[in-house]
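ok here's DUF1697 domain-containing protein, seq below lol
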Amino acid sequence: MTRYIAFFGSVNVGDNRLTMADLRHAMAREEFENIETVVASGNVLFDYDQRPTDGLEDMLSHMMADRFDIASFVAVRSVDELRSAIEDNPFAATGDPAQVHTMFLAGDPGALTFSAMAEIHAPRGPERLALGARCLYIDYVEGVGRSRLTNAFIERRLGYPGTARNIRSLRRILDKMEH
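and the structure came out like this:
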């Protein structure tokens, strides 16, 4: 069995209310094992037979729609992928851990698409941006709540849905995955 983390987007936002107990129960019915929610709602550790994470994303997104009638992008990463999402974030060492985020994406938008989005956003705010492997690194500098760099803007410009977590939370999750 391989240990994974699933980051559920759009859970407990607006009308998409879901208890973590219900989510754990639904995952157990799908034969995921050693299920544990961590840090905040929408972060679930689990064990499953080793397979590509994008296949697990599709499986969990379908489960959310089928069991809870919630359209949710789900990003699934292995321990190594999560570690890379933290270590490769160029803002992690210098930014505020609560404001530096990794946004996990459904795919790789490519350097040209990323550059076009970054150029359009540049006059809109002070955020620092960098592209990673199936992720976007963001330093919100002045805070997420005050930023004009929204998930909708990013998803529309990059062509992929995503869900973000701050570096502080990601470090806690990685620690739990490794121990």
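fwiw The chain has six helices and eight strands. kinda neat tbh
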